[in-house]
């Protein structure tokens, strides 16, 4: 059996399809999809393919290092702590071992880069634990296409253990640095749980660059400068010429030049020429991310989409440093494949105008070619974002095979009295690659034809005062470029580092800027000479990991070197632990302050509790109790935004949660006011004037009206105590109604399954709109009414059944029936208060096993609560005596006895006094037989 191990399930399936289609029979063979040990497998001929989930084992510290507060195993001890490998995907590991025992050949078909080689090596080691002798080979490919896959399996290679060792070194170094530094900083700043402060050897110098840029912007002092230009015209075509001194930094000199400018404007020089606009080089990972960034894709999103396209065989491997197409790449074959797409016209144009040699960049590697299209995709088969990225890669590929663009240029020089001016024009003469690559604007400036000696009027002299601008913040793509220049991270990890900075709330926005916490972490370390923020150490480690690939250094040598560097970092950290922790905590508090309390003027701060609730509270508590409620942390963590409310001066707030779009709260006080206005208006005495007075006194909710001091309400509304007491009563009623509505919404959310076009929230809103505000109202509805609220007939019946059960159980509990007894009643089919009023306590007793006195007590309590006369008291003795007497009547047995109890007949006297016809209807016993029983009673 041939066992093939791919990096992911989707790759395993595609590889199986490709190899099966190219089977030696020439007719292909069928792929059988199955599940083994809970893992998807793909069998064809005598081969089986399965996919990993990236790393199926992980590096961790030896046991004993999990306690962050350990006085023995402090953060520093992690530098020299031993590491172990442990499986993270036990089912996959188990299946590989099982299949390896039967395998006659194993092929590792993971991605061919440092990370992929390490994943392949991990799979190799799992295979070896189960089968020490089976041959293991390596398939290397740059695209999951028939041509690449069949070639890779036809000419397999060996696992590159040096490349894998470089990946393993990175794993271990990142674990040691990240864990030790994160623990130290988090403990120093008293942060734990989900609020830990992440620190890392690549992450921290990257964050430092962002912080340093922000400091540059803040420290920047704009300097004025002046620009001179003149407006003229030639043959009624307007022309603007600028002074040959581009900027005047002295105002007096600018004014002097302006005064020396006089008509006419005389043409003194005419220079024409051409400019070559070079076609772009092929995409490597960084240039691809930059180009995708111009289309408003974040670095992480661009790479995620490119990887999806790669896994589906549409593009080549997107993690590459190469900008030179290898000779082995069949460029013509790619063009022919692209002719099957909607880009066929662009392909034909490229073929007709194809340059002799494709463009190339300065970087050439042997692992993967530049990013290029690998297969024909149809727009309808991809999402909008996938299509945009696919089109970008296709058009870039075509551009690299297309001729350069050519511009015709024209430059005029003019004399205007004692001053000289110039005007420059350009015209796109040959579009070249721009025919197929429309991502950079071709802006033309057309000037009229002039000759030396032409004299033109001066229509206006413009002396504009301008100011220098600060350096721009980094976009994600520019940040990745800068990281590459400084040797921070790799092509595979840079976008992930930026993603981590965003998820850790160290940076925000587009372009990125540091948050106060992110800035606090960097400044605290920089203030105390902690070298982790310097890119040099990280760059050296990156260079030496590259040398592991080339077998110049060993894995252990580089790890040891990094440990020595990390000890130096800890020397600086430990010497300044208290100051670093305090500085970060101060920044963290500042990050959560959103403005001033409208009641007392103290700071308002976002607060989270251990119970996952969060709110905005006044730091003047307990003297000031003003607060603003927020949705629970399950909906996302509340964070402060830079934008402030013009009305209240408070920072906007939003909720962020991993994997979900941010929930924009906006101004929390505006949101608080708007969300509570409807409830205030539910009070019968409420009107706009009263609400305005409440708001002026910073009273915003029904809860506050019901609970704050009477004196404050009287002062706010300038009214008397009696009116306030009435208002309080109204507020309590509204709160009770809202509580019931909340219960109703929770019930609907629990029992209504979301489906397209219908959510539980829609159903709940429809109920409230129909005047149904609690479970009792829902329980009283008909199925037909519910089907008009987005529910099917079956769903309506099921919802009513559940609602009635819950409502009746709650009502009976309220009337005094205990939970233990309720269970017995419900099991016997006694489920509504009306049942207790209609049925004799003796019957309730006989079908539930509850004592007759207790059943009577329950029935009496329910009847009283319902406003119905309670039943006559019964005891066990009364019931037993009546039972014996009834059973002495000839022909009356136990089965009939229960029917009589249900009709309220528990003794001969009751039987004798009953109307035979009515009793027959209630019990189902024939009237003649009942009369016979009555006669026997005589």
Structural commentary:
The protein has 938 residues and is α+β, with helices and mostly antiparallel strands. The chain is built from 36 helices and 24 strands. Helix 9 packs across helix 12 and helix 35 packs across helix 36.
Specify the overall morphology: extended
Describe the largest sheet. 7 strands, antiparallel
Give the C-alpha Rg. 40 Å
End-to-end separation in angstroms reads 93 Å
Beta strand %: 15-25%
Q: Largest beta sheet: what is the strand line-up?
A: 14-11-12-13-10-9-15
Number of helices: 36
Helix content: 40-55%
Low-confidence stretches: none
Structural class: alpha+beta
Average of pLDDT? 91
Count of β-strands: 24
List the helices and strands and how they pair.
Elements: E1 2-6, H1 9-21, E2 32-36, E3 39-44, E4 47-51, E5 57-61, E6 83-87, H2 90-102, E7 105-109, H3 114-130, E8 136-138, H4 146-154, H5 161-188, H6 203-219, E9 224-234, E10 237-243, H7 251-260, E11 261-277, H8 285-294, H9 299-311, H10 331-338, H11 344-352, H12 384-400, E12 405-417, E13 419-430, E14 455-456, E15 460-467, H13 476-486, H14 494-503, E16 507-508, E17 513-514, H15 516-527, H16 535-549, H17 555-575, H18 577-592, E18 593-596, E19 603-608, E20 614-618, E21 627-629, E22 637-644, E23 651-656, E24 663-666, H19 668-681, H20 688-696, H21 702-707, H22 710-717, H23 721-751, H24 760-769, H25 775-779, H26 783-786, H27 793-815, H28 819-827, H29 833-838, H30 841-848, H31 852-866, H32 876-887, H33 894-902, H34 908-913, H35 916-923, H36 927-937
Parallel strand pairs: 1-4, 1-7, 7-8
Antiparallel strand pairs: 2-3, 3-4, 5-6, 9-10, 9-15, 10-13, 11-12, 11-14, 12-13, 16-17, 18-19, 19-20, 20-21, 22-23, 23-24
């Amino acid at each position: 059996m041939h066992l093939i191990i791919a990096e992911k399930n989707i790759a395993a399936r595609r590889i199986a399809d490709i190899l099966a289609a190219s089977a030696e029979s020439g007719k292909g063979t069928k792929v059988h999809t199955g599940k083994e040990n809970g893992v998807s497998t793909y069998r064809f001929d005598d081969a089986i393919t399965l996919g990993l989930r990236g790393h199926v084992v992980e590096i961790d510290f030896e046991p004993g290092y999990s306690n962050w507060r350990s006085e023995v195993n402090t953060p520093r001890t992690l530098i020299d702590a031993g590491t172990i490998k442990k499986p993270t995907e036990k089912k996959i590991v188990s299946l590989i071992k099982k299949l390896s025992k039967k395998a006659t050949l194993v092929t590792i078909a993971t991605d061919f880069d440092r990370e992929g080689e390490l994943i392949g090596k991990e799979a190799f080691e799992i295979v070896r634990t189960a089968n020490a002798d089976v041959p293991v080979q390596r398939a290397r490919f740059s695209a999951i296409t028939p041509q690449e896959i069949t070639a890779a399996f036809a000419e397999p290679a060996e696992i590159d253990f040096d490349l894998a060792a470089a990946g393993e070194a990175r794993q271990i170094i990142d674990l040691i640095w990240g864990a030790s530094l994160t623990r130290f900083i988090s403990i120093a700043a008293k942060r734990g749980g989900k609020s830990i402060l992440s620190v890392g050897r690549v992450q921290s110098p990257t964050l430092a660059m962002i912080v340093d840029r922000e400091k540059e912007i803040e420290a920047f002092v704009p300097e004025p400068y002046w620009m001179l230009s003149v407006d003229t015209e030639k043959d009624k075509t307007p022309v603007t010429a600028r002074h040959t001194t581009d900027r005047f930094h002295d105002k007096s000199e600018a004014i002097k030049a302006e005064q020396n400018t006089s008509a006419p404007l005389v043409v003194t020089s005419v220079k024409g020429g051409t400019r070559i606009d070079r076609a772009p080089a092929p995409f490597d990972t960084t240039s691809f991310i930059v180009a995708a960034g111009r289309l408003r894709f974040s670095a992480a999103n661009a790479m995620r989409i490119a990887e999806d396209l790669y896994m589906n065989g549409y593009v080549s491997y997107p993690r590459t440093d190469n900008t030179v197409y290898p000779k082995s790449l069949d460029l013509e074959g790619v063009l022919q494949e692209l002719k099957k797409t909607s880009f066929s016209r662009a392909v034909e144009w490229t073929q007709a105008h194809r340059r002799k040699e494709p463009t190339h960049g300065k970087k050439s590697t042997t692992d993967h070619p530049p990013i290029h299209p690998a297969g024909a995709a149809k727009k309808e088969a991809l999402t909008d974002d996938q299509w945009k990225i696919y089109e970008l890669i296709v058009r870039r590929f075509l551009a690299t095979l297309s001729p350069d663009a050519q511009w015709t240029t024209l430059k005029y020089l003019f004399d205007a009295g004692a001053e000289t001016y110039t005007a420059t024009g350009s015209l796109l003469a040959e579009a070249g690659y721009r025919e197929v690559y429309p991502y950079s604007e071709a802006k033309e400036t057309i000037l009229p034809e002039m000759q030396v000696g032409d004299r033109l009027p001066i229509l206006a002299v413009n002396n504009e005062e301008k100011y220098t601008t600060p350096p721009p913040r980094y976009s994600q793509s520019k940040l990745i470029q800068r990281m590459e220049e400084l040797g921070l991270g790799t092509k595979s990890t840079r976008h992930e580092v930026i993603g981590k900075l965003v998820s850790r709330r160290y940076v925000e926005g587009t372009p990125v800027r540091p948050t106060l916490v992110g800035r606090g972490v960097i400044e605290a370390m920089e203030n105390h000479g902690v070298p982790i923020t310097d890119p040099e150490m990280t760059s050296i480690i990156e260079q030496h990991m590259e040398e592991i690939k080339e077998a110049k250094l060993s894995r252990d040598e580089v790890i040891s070197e990094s440990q020595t560097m990390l000890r130096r970092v800890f020397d600086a950290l430990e010497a300044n632990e208290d100051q670093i922790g305090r500085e970060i905590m101060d920044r963290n508090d500042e990050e959560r302050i959103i403005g001033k309390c409208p009641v007392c003027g103290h700071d308002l701060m976002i607060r989270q509790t251990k119970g996952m609730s969060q709110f905005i509270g006044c730091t003047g508590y307990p003297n000031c109790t003003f607060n603003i409620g927020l949705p629970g942390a399950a909906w996302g963590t509340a964070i402060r935004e830079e934008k402030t409310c013009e009305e209240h001066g408070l920072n906007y707030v939003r909720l962020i949660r991993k994997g979900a779009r941010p929930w924009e709260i906006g101004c929390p006080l505006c949101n608080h006011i708007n969300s509570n206005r409807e409830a205030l208006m539910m009070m019968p005495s409420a009107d706009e004037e009263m609400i305005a007075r409440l708001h002026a006194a910073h009273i915003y909710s029904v809860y506050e009206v019901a609970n704050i001091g009477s004196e404050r309400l009287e002062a706010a509304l300038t009214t008397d105590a009696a009116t306030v007491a009435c208002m309080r009563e109204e507020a309590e009623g509204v709160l009770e109604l809202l509580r019931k509505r909340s219960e109703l919404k929770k019930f609907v959310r629990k029992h209504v399954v979301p489906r397209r076009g219908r959510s539980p929230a829609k159903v709940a809103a429809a109920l409230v709109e129909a005047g149904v505000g609690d479970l009792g109202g829902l329980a009283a509805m008909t199925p037909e009414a519910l089907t008009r609220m987005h529910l099917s007939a079956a769903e309506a019946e099921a919802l009513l059944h559940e609602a009635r059960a819950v409502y009746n159980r709650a009502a009976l509990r309220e009337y005094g029936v205990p939970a233990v007894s309720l269970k017995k009643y419900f099991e016997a089919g006694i489920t509504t208060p009306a049942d207790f009023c209609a049925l004799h306590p003796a019957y309730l007793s006989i079908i539930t096993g509850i004592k007759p006195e207790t059943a009577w007590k329950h029935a009496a309590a329910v009847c009283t609560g319902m406003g119905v006369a309670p039943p006559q008291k019964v005891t066990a003795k009364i019931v037993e005596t009546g039972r014996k007497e009834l059973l002495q009547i000839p022909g009356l047995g136990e089965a009939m006895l229960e029917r009589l109890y249900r009709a309220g007949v528990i003794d001969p006297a009751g039987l004798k006094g009953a109307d035979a016809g009515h009793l027959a209807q209630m019990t189902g016993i024939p009237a003649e037989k009942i009369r016979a029983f009555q006669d026997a009673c005589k």
